[in-house]
Design a protein that fits this description.
Elements lengths: L1 H12 L3 H12 L4 H8 L3 H14 L8 H16 L5 E3 L4 E4 L5 E3 L3 H8 L1 H23 L1
The structure holds zinc ion (ZN).
């Protein structure tokens, strides 16, 4: 579960809202991939690929069902929504990192975060994990 949450945290920090929107619509609202693809202006295979990648991150002994993924996202997403994006958009597909001030291509910003701000990614991931585990504990009790 931790790698799946780290993935969501990194997407939000990098301002990759389309990816998060795909996961919300696919798993939480049960919308068909073609509809999501049309709405977000992406290819259907890309939409399915992102959903499948996320499901793989949650693999324990078996792949989780859509329903299991939805239940987890229902708990996790409100915390992800509260995380800020650490970039300011400029022209020409460039963004400025609000942590260190460096200007990089938007397409490379997630890698920039992983390379230079892994400590912050881990800190936020741990914080979300703690909240999710306590919620799961309450639900199971
Ligand atoms: Zn930076």
């Amino acid at each position: 579960m931790e790698s799946a949450i780290r993935y969501l945290v990194t997407l939000k920090m990098a301002g990759m809202s389309k990816h998060l929107e795909i996961l919300k619509r696919y798993f939480m609202r049960n919308e068909p991939p073609w509809k999501i693809a049309e709405l977000l202006g992406m290819r259907r295979l890309v939409v399915k690929g992102i959903a499948q990648y996320f499901r793989e991150l949650l693999r324990a002994r078996t792949l989780p069902s859509d329903d299991q993924v939805r239940k987890l996202l229902d708990i996790v997403m409100p915390y992800i929504d509260c995380i800020p994006s650490y970039c300011i958009h400029h022209d020409n597909g460039l963004v400025r990192c609000t942590i260190c001030g460096e200007v990089v291509k938007y397409a490379e910003f997630r890698d920039h975060l992983r390379k230079h701000h892994q400590d912050l990614i881990e800190k936020i991931t741990k914080s979300v994990m703690t909240k999710v585990i306590s919620r799961l504990g309450v639900k199971l009790a």
